[in-house]
Amino acid sequence: MRLMAGLRTVGAIVLTLVVLALLDTDVTLMVAGAMTAMVSTFAIKEKEVRGQAVTLALGLPVALTAMSLGALLHTLVVAGDLFFVLLIFGAVYCRRFGDRGTALGLIGFQVYFVSLFVHATGPALPELYLTLGIAFVCSAVVRFAVVPETPTRTLPRLREAFRARLAQLMATQLELLDAGPDDLDGVLDDLRRHTARLHEAALMIQGHLEEGTRDAATAGLVERRVAEAEIAAERLGMLILNARSADRADTITMHLPDAPVPATGTRLGTEEEALATLRRDLRALLLLVARRAPDDRGTALALVRNRLLGYREEDDLPRASAAVQDVFRGLGEAARAVLGLRLALDGPQDESDDSPATTRSREEFDAEDLSIVGADETEEPADDRTGLDRPTTRAAFQVAVGSTLAIIGGEFLSSQRWYWAVLTCWVVFLNTASTGEILVKGYRRLVGTVLGVVAGVALAGLVGNHTWSAFALVLLCIFGMWFTAPLSYALMSFFTTAMLGLLYTLLNTYSLDVLVLRIEETALGAACGIIGAVLVLPVHTDRRTDDLLGTVLVRLRDVVSAAVEQLSGGPAVDLLGMARDLDTALDELRASIQPLTHPITPLRVRRRTARYLVALLETCAYHARSLAATAELVPYSKTIAADPRLARAGRRIGQNIDLLVARVLEESTEGEVDSGFSIAAMLEAAGAGALQSGTVTFRVLRHLQRLDEGVVGLARPLDVPVSGPKGSKAG
C-alpha cells in the first residue's frame, strides 16, 4: 500500500511536469505544478472512488482561492500573516468533518504555502490558475486510471498479505520447535514480530471490508475467518513454546520483548517420534497456507488436510505428554482455521476426498455462515464532546498560537523564508494528540532535517544546472517521503529536506546559508509548536494515556462480559466487532505512549512500566479475542454447549476491570482488586468435575485464568491494592 501511494504521487507529478513541459512552462511554474500535484494526491484519503472524486473536485476551487489570496497578500505583511494564521486555524478545525474536511484543509494550507514558496504575484495568477488546473487533472488521471485505489482492488492484496504473514509466522513456529538455547532469544523476537505483523494485517483487512465486499454477510464471513486464523496461529505458537518449556510458559512472553526466556526442559527430548510427527505436520500446515485453491491438484493436499483436521479428535492424537498433545490439538484447530480461510477467500472446493473430521469442520462452517446472514450491524458510538473538549477545536487554537509565534520568530530569522517555521509548527500537530507526542515529532523532524541538509548539499552540488536531473532526483525523494512516512517520521523529514535543496537549485536560489536557515527555522517551528501545545489548552501525555487506558479497559470488560454471557447461554452479539474495537483502542494507546517509551526519555523506570502495561493489555486482548471467537460458535455448534456456571467465573474479572477503570480515570479510590482462587478451582468447587486438557471448557477456563492473572497484574503497576489469599494463582 505504501508502494502504491508512492507511485501514485510520483505518477501525478511526472504527468504534470510532462504536460507543463510540452506547454513550454518556465521552471517556477513547473515547481508550483509539481507541489500542487503532490498535495492533491496525498491529501485525499477516502476509500470509495466517488468520495475521492468529489473531494478532488472541491479541492480545485479551494486551491485556486488559496493561491489567489497568497498572491494578493504577499505585499501586505500584517494582513497576510493574519490570514495565514486564520487559514491554519480553519484547516485544523476542518478535521472534525472527517476525511473530506481534513483533505480540503490540507490542500488550502499547502497551496497557500506553495504561493509563498514560488513568490506568487497578481500578474502571474492566470498562468498559476492554469498550472493548478493541470496539476489537479493529472492527479485525477493517475488516481482513477493509471494507479487506481479502490477497496475492491486493495482488499485482495491485503488478503494475500495476510496469507504471507500467516506463512511467515508458521515458519517461525517451526524454527521455535527446534531452536537451541542459544538461538531461542532470536527466534522469540522473530515470533513476536511476525505475530504483531499478522495482527496488523488482520486489522487492515477489517478496515477495508465494509467498502471492499459486496454485502455485509460477505464482510462478516471474511472478518470471522481472518480472526479465527489469527487466533489459531497465535495459540499454536504459545502451545509450542509451552511444550518446550520446563514449566508452563507465561503468555506475556509473546508480547513483551524483554520478558525472560522460559527455561527449556526435556518435555520434547524424550518424545522423538512425536517430535518428528509434529515437525512433519507443521510443514504440512505451512504448505496448506501457502497453496492457493486453484493450485490444488490430486489428493495429496486433501490427505494432508484430513490428517491435520483429525487432530481435533481425541482418538487421533499421538501418544505423548499432555503438553505435546496440546500442540497437536492446536495444530488441528489451526488447520481448521486455514480451511475456513480458504473457503472464505477462494470459494467452495472439492469435497470428494473429505474425511469425517473434514466433513464435520465444513458442517460447522456452513452453520456459522448461516448465522452471519442474520447478524445485526453495530453502530459506532457518537462523539458527544463539544466546544473546547473536541480535539480538533483544541488543536486548532494550539496550532494558531504556535504558528503566530513561528511567524514572529521566523521573521527575525528571515523575512523571505519565515514560512518554514510555520510549516514545521503545522506539521508537528498532524496526527498528534498530546504534548509528549508533539515533542517527539518535533525532535524527529529536526533530526531528519539536519541529515537532509547534508544530503541536500551533496545532491545540489551533484546536479549543478541540469534541470531534468534535478527533477528526477526530486521524484526519487518524493517517493522516499511517502514510502517511508508510516515507518519513520525522521526519514520522511530527511527526504523532504533533501528535495527542498534540489527545488532551490531549480529556482536558482540555492546556497548553503539557505539550508542552514532551514535547520534554524525547523528548530524554531518545533519549539513554537511545543510552546503552543503546553500553554494553550494543554493535553498532557499522562492525561491522554490515562484516558486511552480507561477506554481499552472498558472495551476489554465489554468483550469479556459479552463473551462469558454468550458462553453461559446468553443472547448472541457481534463479539468479533467488539474485539476489533478493543484492538483499535489498544493501537491508539500504543501510539500515545511512544513519548514514554522513546529512547530519549530520561524516565527509564516509567518506560519499562509503560511497556509492561501495554504487553499485559496485549496479552489480555489476545485471550479476549480467543474467548470471543469461541463464544460465537455456541449458538450453532454441535460440539460447544453453553455452560451457565461460566457467568460466575467471569463476574470477578468484570468487577476487577471496573475497579481499575475507576482508579485510572480518578472516579473512585475505593476498593481492592480481588485475586481470590483460580477460576478452575472455583468451577471445580461448583461441581465442574475433572477437566481434560483438550476440551473446549478447559480452553475457555484457561483463557479466563489468563485474563484474571492479567487484570491482577495490571493492578500492581497502577498502584491498585490487591486482596485475596497469598499464593493463589491460576495453574
Please report the total strand number as a whole number: 2
Q: Please state roughly what percent of the residues sit in beta strands, choosing from under 5%, 5-15%, 15-25%, 25-35%, 35-45% or over 45%.
A: under 5%
* Spatial gap, N to C terminus: 44 Å
- Biggest sheet overview: 2 strands, parallel
Q: Determine the structural class based on helices, strands and strand pairing.
A: mainly alpha
Numbering strands along the chain, what is their spatial order in the largest sheet? Answer: 1-2
Keywords:
731 residues, mainly alpha, two-stranded parallel ribbon, 26 helices, cell membrane, transmembrane helix, membrane, Membrane protein, transmembrane
Can you walk through the features of this model?
The structure is a single chain. By secondary structure, the chain is mainly α. It has four domains: 1-149, no CATH class; 152-259 and 272-354; 395-539, no CATH class; 566-574 and 584-723, no CATH class. Helix content is 71%, strand content 1%. It is built from 26 helices and two strands. Strands 1-2 form a two-stranded parallel sheet. It is globular and about 85 Å long. The two termini are 44 Å apart. The relative contact order is 0.07.
Task: Write the topology of this structure.
Layout: H1 2-22, H2 27-42, H3 49-72, H4 77-93, H5 98-117, H6 125-146, H7 151-178, H8 184-212, H9 216-243, H10 272-290, H11 300-309, H12 322-346, H13 356-373, H14 391-413, H15 419-428, H16 435-463, H17 467-484, H18 489-506, H19 512-535, H20 541-567, H21 575-592, H22 594-597, H23 604-631, H24 646-664, E1 673-674, H25 679-685, H26 696-715, E2 722-723
Parallel strand pairs: 1-2
Helix pairs in contact: 1-2, 1-6, 1-17, 2-5, 2-6, 3-5, 3-6, 4-5, 4-14, 7-8, 7-9, 7-10, 8-9, 9-12, 9-23, 10-11, 10-12, 14-15, 14-19, 15-19, 16-18, 16-19, 17-18, 20-21, 20-23, 20-24, 21-23, 23-26, 24-26
